[in-house]
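U., I forgot to send this yesterday:
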Amino acid sequence: FEDLPPAPWGARGTLRQSVTEWLSAGGPVTHVADGGRSDGALVGMLVHRLFQAARRPAEERDQRALVSALIRPEERATTLEIERVVDEALEIWNRLIRRPDVLAILEAADVSAEVPFSLRVNDGAPAVLRGTIDCLVVAREGLVTVVEFKTGAPRDDHQRQLDLYVRAARA
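Result:
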């Protein structure tokens, strides 16, 4: 394969990394790892999937069944606390869908959750960034909204991350 010319998107010297890695490379780590537990990430992913799967599940029992069905087998294996994860995802989801701005977006749009992207940037050095937009909403009139939410404590790089996601959606 060494005799093949590099693909236009893979010029030699172009860094390929995730948005999170790229943002954190600019300075010290701004958060503390949770010891390898992925519960927080799983809660967030379930809320993302709820944006796509349901607008407003009617009863609590139905909500719990829906969230439980959205958990993939490999994700179930990452935690012993599925009930707590389901409870946290539902608490966040129910808080979000009570917001008038969120309801307005969801009622008039096509919603896609966990939308992967690659974005070529040249902010100091060329790089191809990979990421996943929590929720991408396309309204009937073509307006695109990036919905990005955090389930943990606010960090300085959250706004920069959102800006990159908007830039990727525009591209």
